[in-house]
């Protein structure tokens, strides 16, 4: 008997009818002879709504209490799915992350899974039950408090369970047919890819393609779990995320080998802000002091640029991007070290976006940067900060230019499909 972990995202369980539809799909997998473990997200935009509610009650809610609140979203949908399955005449049991044995670090809002102790899941599967686990949550090993794993992290719960339970693969059901060459919500000519390597998917996710949570892909690569991303609204085959070595080379309709595309996808994010520290004294150790202080607050930095010192004053400007959600804490931290470092002022801009092109093909092909920048220039998009990795080039642009930039890059690398990509549901929030 094979064992399958299926994860359904918020847009797939947005209302009562959707939950009943998902229940039928889960039952069909069970009836095909599989042990089924379902990981479920909160209904629709519930997590955002709960966050808004918390902020109405308190501008700075305690992280522990926020986790207590947010975990209820997944708990609701898990229980409701179990009820829908009961009505279809099948045994099903829902569990919170903690009950399912998802053991985490203690960092509220961004906890890491450190162990899975799936005793109760095994017991329920042995009884012939379908098991439903509330995604995105666990319990801290140290404090025994309930934790959440970061926005979008139900994907990570699913892959972690698939690894711990030795599942054959992990299915991630969402509101598009699979992984596309760009977000189909802003690039209608995006093309679905049948397979993609863990490495490319990690870069896409890290660059803003929220179709998969970054840590879920990292986990899958480490534990060698194959992921099948597909739509819960259609029966079409989705996209397999797997080891590069297992990916079959592209062929044309007659089966002849085709050249691999240079770029496998274009990703974007609007969730970052840019801070510029102006007039930092050009002395050894000043940058270290600034970033030490920011790291001490647990804030991650993305792109960093230090410009050439202004010769007259022997000072330099340091700009960096970070998640907008962390910007306030970063500005507070910088204010607290302003005197010590002796910089002049700080500038803040949250009207930015980042557009990235990603592909293993760029390792061996020169000219990718030139083609990318030419496409943006022809589309009238002005470039801000630039950063690269071995298989990625990213540029910061005005928030208002992101869609134009994504579409221009997509076309320039020959990725445009003939038809329009389908987006089945969701608000894109
Ligand atoms: P779920 O609620 O199922 O977890 P998400 O909203 O987190 O769904 O992720 C699915 C969304 O990811 C899609 O609706 C799409 O707008 C977005 N997305 C961004 N980049 C891509 C991409 N390259 N391929 C597919 N979807 C993408
Ligand atoms: N409900 C959580 C969120 O909206 C987790 C998830 O959907 O994966 O971030
Ligand atoms: Mg998601």
Q: Ions, cofactors, ligands: which are bound? A: adenosine-5'-diphosphate, aspartic acid, magnesium ion
Describe the largest sheet.
8 strands, mixed
How many domains? The number is 2
CATH topology of the largest domain: Carbamate kinase
Poorly predicted runs: none
How many distinct helices? 11
Strand content: 25-35%
For the CA atoms, what is the radius of gyration? 23 Å
What is the average of the pLDDT values?
Answer: 94
The tally of strands reads 20
Percent in helix = 25-40%
Query: What is the end-to-end distance?
Result: 38 Å
CATH architecture of the largest domain: 3-Layer(aba) Sandwich
Descriptive notes:
The strands form four sheets. An eight-stranded mixed sheet has the order 3-6-2-1-9-11-12-10, with helices on both faces. It has a four-stranded mixed sheet with strand order 5-4-7-8. The protein has a four-stranded antiparallel sheet with strand order 13-18-20-19, with helices on both faces. With 429 residues, the chain is α/β, with parallel strands linked by helices. Helices cover 32% and strands 25% of the residues. The protein folds into two domains: 2-246, Acetylglutamate kinase-like (Carbamate kinase), CATH 3.40.1160.10; 262-412, VC0802-like. Residues 9-12, 41, 152, 174-176, 179-180, 182-185, 204, 209-211, 265, 423, 426, 428 line the site of adenosine-5'-diphosphate. Residues 275-360 form the ACT domain.
